[in-house]
Design goal:
By secondary structure, the protein is an alpha/beta fold. It has 12 helices and 15 strands. The strands form 3 sheets. Strands 6-5-4-1-2-3-15 form a 7-stranded mixed beta sheet. The two termini are about 30 Å apart.
């Protein structure tokens, strides 16, 4: 297998995974707030490229950043991101090969991006699910990220998703716009228990799920790369202040204990919403009853609770058959960067067995 760098270019984060000989050498995530412009993405790409070895590499790219409101529509977003990435690569590593993941259409060169833009847009979930299907056969991928959660069934070595585009996936429960870090709390509930009564919270971007997880003691601070809602500190006290503001309370009067109690309620609410979507997917019967959930994303530890609720075994992304890592550090980052790892593995396998661009059967059921 060739040396491959898999890239997942998102609207909030860039994820990159360097693989060689079927092993993950390194994976990392960097902040790329595309709503501020292309510059954060370009800077992050440059930083990763400059850290790579001199040997010729294959770069396999998937993306979700085309959804950023920087772009007028997804097609123009795909083109802009692909063009910016190709320019950076050509400038720093002119001898490397570049391909873009286009779902069931396989991998396409830059010249094919315009024609395949609908398949390239937000296809990172399909790369991850196809990787799971090939490695495991049956199961459900639950990738709980910072912003969204993908719930993708696979069986018989094939992806069994109903939805192919985001619009369809939102309808089917296979895409839920709730995440561990960036979700505004006003998206989770219109009634909140506080002081023994139900209170209508303020529909303002005062606090996010990162504040909830911090107060619950379950946030890995190294994963929280973007500013807080108020651009303020990332401490328990600051999170409590932001969270209490949602219910028109101040920290000195309400106290930290009540803020933690409210955070635990929001955590449970998040899991209830994700559990309902998972039930919707499982009830279609595409996946055998004892097939596992595969936990990926920055919120992978919470997927264990979803598996317990569903009565299914749990398999962590880094435990998938064939998911070898060169170090404990790379293994620890694998789940957070699952789409980047997946697209690297898919590209490496296909470049060895078939011309890049060939359609892969494991992806064909995702429609």
């Amino acid at each position: 297998m060739p040396e491959v760098v898999g890239w997942d270019l998102g609207g909030a984060h860039l994820k990159a995974a360097h693989c060689a000989g079927g092993r993950l050498l390194r994976a990392l995530q960097l902040p790329t707030p595309l709503w501020l412009g292309l510059q954060p993405l370009e800077a992050a790409v440059d930083g990763v490229l400059d850290s790579l070895p001199d040997a010729p590499l294959l770069h396999a790219v998937t993306m979700t950043g085309e959804l950023a409101d920087l772009f007028s529509d997804r097609r123009s977003g795909v083109g802009a991101i692909a063009g910016a990435f190709a320019e950076r690569l050509a400038r720093r590593r002119p001898g490397d090969t570049l391909r873009f993941f286009a779902g069931s259409a396989g991998f396409v060169p830059l010249s094919g991006v315009a024609a395949a833009s609908a398949d390239i847009a937000s296809a990172n979930w399909l790369a991850s699910a196809a990787c799971c299907a090939e490695a495991l056969g049956d199961g459900v991928l639950v990738d709980l990220g910072s912003t969204t959660t993908d719930i993708v069934p696979f069986a018989g070595g094939r992806v069994r998703a109903i939805g192919a585009r985001d619009a369809e996936r939102l309808e089917t429960g296979e895409l839920v716009y709730l995440g561990l870090l960036r979700t505004p709390l006003m998206a989770l509930a219109q009634r909140v228990p506080f002081g023994g009564l139900l209170r209508r919270p303020m529909n303002e971007h005062f606090a996010t799920t990162a504040d909830v997880m911090r107060l619950c003691g379950e946030l890995d601070e190294a994963a929280d790369l973007l500013p807080a809602a108020d651009q303020g500190e990332k401490s328990a006290e600051a999170s409590a202040r932001r969270l209490l503001r949602m219910v028109a309370e101040d920290l000195p009067e309400a106290g930290l204990a009540r803020a933690v109690e409210l955070a635990r309620w929001y955590r449970a609410r998040l899991l209830d919403e994700l559990g309902a979507a998972l039930d919707e997917v499982l009830q279609r019967g595409a996946v055998p009853p004892r097939a596992p959930l595969v936990a990926a994303g920055v919120g992978a530890p919470l997927v264990a609770e979803l598996a317990a609720r569903a009565g299914r075994p749990l398999l962590r992304w880094e435990e998938l058959p064939g998911m070898a890592a060169a170090s404990a550090g790379a293994r620890a980052e694998a789940a957070r960067c699952a789409p980047a790892v997946a697209v690297a593995r898919l590209a490496a396998a296909r470049s060895s067995a078939a011309p890049l661009g060939a359609t892969d059967g494991a992806l064909g059921e995702a429609a």
